[in-house]
Amino acid sequence: MSHSKILTVSALLLSVTAAAPATAQDSSRATELYHIFDIRTTAARADVIRALQDGMNPNISQSDTMTPLVMGTPPETPARFTLVNPLEGTPLGGLIPASQMAQVRQVRCDGAVWISSAIRKVRGSQQLRITMCLFPYFSPTAQGYHLDVHAIDIKEKGGGLSAKIGRAIGTAIVGDSSGWTNKTIIDTLRNVQRQLSPAISYVEGQPAFTGTPWLDPVQLAPSTTDKATQENGAPPAIPTPPAQPK
Predict the structure, then answer these.
(1) Which of 78, 181, 211, 222 is the Cys-Cys partner for 137 at CB 3.0 to 4.6 Å?
(2) DSSP conformation class of 123
């Protein structure tokens, strides 16, 4: 760690220690997000899956992947993920607060040729649970895949002195964890772009990415383009209404 970062961490520890109350309440804030990307390519399925996996691995703590048996010709229109609440209609489901329901829902990837469930965890600061589904399509004019991404970004708040110190150190070293959420997703696509040179385009999402960050080289820390979404970027221009006739 550089001398400047050591000084920064030391200053943060002093401020956290001074501000910490005798007792503190643990809490968390969960944000649900999704993105859909079009990967237009004639590359073999195994090569696309390998590139996705290799691009995701550096930014996550653990993952479970599955390549389901999908037979026959891919559909002309790619499928998309769905969300299922396994507790819907049960007595227990009525007891779960709405703020926690997003963490209970399950992602279904029916028709996907590759499914990955991964976790990025920063102790005392963040837990990112991310699911990726790769849906093939084949039409007379184009072929390729849709990569559907669903994630629950959980920020840990509050806690005792040790939790606050852990977050202060983590923030001083790697920065705000929010940027790493986008970087985890975009770095996966960057590896596909680098290895297979497909035509990647953004279909939709919330919050929506702006620009084409997957064309940028991989960097150690989240870049400006990684953080560029419609929610934290400049608001869309409001068209000027036509002048009324006098």
Answers:
(1) 78
(2) T
Residues 6 or more apart from 117 whose CB is under 8 A from it?
63, 64, 65, 107, 129, 130, 131
Token digits of residue 55: 């691009």
pLDDT tens-digit map of 135-162: 999 999 999 999 999 999 988 766 555 5
**What phi and psi values does residue 195 have, to the nearest 5 degrees?**
-85, -35
Look at 39 and 9; give whichever has higher pLDDT.
Answer: 39
For helices 161-174 and 3-19, angle between their N-to-C axes, nearest 10 degrees:
150
CB 161 within 8 A of CB 131: no
Closest CA to 37 of 78, 83, 84, 82: 78
In angstroms, rounded to a whole number, what is the distance separating the alpha carbons of residues 49 and 55? 10
CA 195/CA 1 separation, integer angstroms: 32
User: Which pTM value belongs to this model?
Assistant: 0.76
Mean pLDDT of the region 98-112: 80
Give the per-residue pLDDT at 243. Answer: 55
Sign of CA dihedral 6, 11, 14, 17: negative
